[in-house]
Design brief:
There is one protein chain. By secondary structure, the chain is mainly alpha-helical. The chain has two domains: about 5-60, no CATH class; about 65-195, Cytochrome c-like domain (Cytochrome Bc1 Complex, Chain D, domain 2). The protein contains eight helices and four strands, in the order H-E-E-H-H-H-H-H-E-H-H-E. It has helices spanning about 5-10, 35-60, 65-90, 90-100, 100-115, 115-120, 145-150, 165-180; strands at about 20-25, 30, 135, 195. The protein has a two-stranded antiparallel ribbon. Strand 1 (about 20-25) and strand 2 form a beta hairpin. The model has no long low-confidence stretch (mean pLDDT about 90). Bound molecules: heme C. The site of heme C has 25 residues, from helix 5, helix 6, helix 7 and helix 8. Heme C binds near residues 112, 116, 118, 120 and 174.
């Protein structure tokens, strides 16, 4: 206690002689002193705060955790960035950014499961349609090539045109999904077309 406080309070009655606790480690002993109030209140405060935090953030989930908030903000920023890029004109970079946006890829996966697995199978390993996971491509492997193939289809070979049925935004999502399975080399239909790297 500082001298300043000691001058104001006569705490001689509360004075206790130091007692030494009866354990000892490597010659180090410990006084049995009362913990200071400020320390105790800090501890009780922390316990109350932790309980409150636990219930609000984890049990009732009334508030989002900082990391979830961060991810939300980042996802929003990514959407805005994508929208800007789309306005400027869709190009390979646009699809690279899109394939890096989990929401869009998930949306693409849903479309793929609904409309594409019949011919390309669940992992894109190919059946009627070619294997989309190998390094060989018939119509090119750049994102803009995929976009064109999926939009326009290849009528003569049985690949439908998806532009009208899905609309451009959903075609973009499914292309961004196909980009994520590209080069995963799932064994399936034998490679067709030319080796192609993007
Ligand atoms: C009715 C069967 C069928 C469906 C459904 C289908 N495809 Fe295809 N797809 C094909 C065939 C067949 C080809 C090969 C075209 C060729 O040989 O020129 C192909 C080719 C492709 C290619 C080009 C592969 C390359 O090597 O260049 C892509 C990309 C593709 N499909 C994506 C999709 C997507 C995405 C969907 C769903 C929206 C889809 N396909 C639905 C049959 C299908």
């Amino acid at each position: 206690m500082s001298e300043h406080q000691a001058n104001k309070h006569d705490n001689r009655a509360a004075y206790q002689q130091d007692t030494v606790m009866d354990h000892e480690f490597d010659g180090i002993q410990e006084f049995d002193n009362r913990l200071p109030n400020w320390w105790l209140w800090l501890m009780y405060g922390s316990i109350v705060f932790a309980l409150f935090y636990w219930i609000v953030f984890h049990t009732l989930e009334l508030r989002k955790l900082p990391r979830e908030q961060f991810e939300e903000v980042m996802a929003e920023a990514q959407e805005i960035q994508l929208a800007k890029m789309m306005e400027a004109g869709v190009d390979n970079d646009f699809f690279v950014a899109m394939a890096d946006t989990p929401d869009k890829v998930a949306e693409g996966r849903e479309i793929f499961v609904k409309h594409c697995v019949a011919c390309h199978l669940d992992q894109g390993q190919g059946l009627v349609g070619p294997n989309l996971t190998d390094g060989n491509w018939i119509h090119g492997c750049e994102p803009m090539d995929l976009f064109k193939t999926v939009s326009d289809g290849v009528a003569a070979k049985g690949m439908p045109a998806w532009q009208n049925q899905l609309g451009p935004t959903r075609v973009m999502s499914v292309v961004s999904y196909v980009m994520t399975i590209k080069n995963t080399n799932v064994s399936g239909k034998a490679p067709e077309g030319e080796p192609c790297q993007f």
